[in-house]
Amino acid sequence: MPLTKPPPPPPKPTFDEFSTPEDFNDQFKKKETTKYMNPCAVEEKQSMKCLDVNNYDKSKCEYFFLQYRECKKNWVSQNTDHGDES
Fold first, then answer.
1. Disordered: where is this region (predicted)?
2. Which of 6, 36, 56, 69 is buried most deeply by CB count within 10 Å?
């Protein structure tokens, strides 16, 4: 039985406009930080973008990883109860 070539993939969809409102960042910054919000979202996004741009070569993104780790460390330390309730 001869092999057949698979059909081409469907075309990628195109979107006319962004679904995120223009003032999204301003509105997001005004929100109170809770345990469900990530105050390190910018650092996280920058590190992921760096990986995308550099073909997932982690060695080229150490600066962004360091920024993200420091932000998370500060966030966790602010939200951790240092009192012992034994």
1. 1-23
2. 69
Could you tell me which residues come within 8 angstroms of residue 33 by beta carbon, excluding any fewer than 6 positions away?
39
Domain that includes residue 52, residue range: 37-78
Q: Tokens in use for 42?
A: 């910018």
State pTM to two decimals: 0.51
Type of residue at 56: Y
Q: State in Å, rounded, how far the first CA of the chain is from the last one.
A: 74
Q: Which residue has the tokens 């910018």?
A: 42
Count of structural domains within the chain: 1
* Residue reference for tokens 């006319």: 16
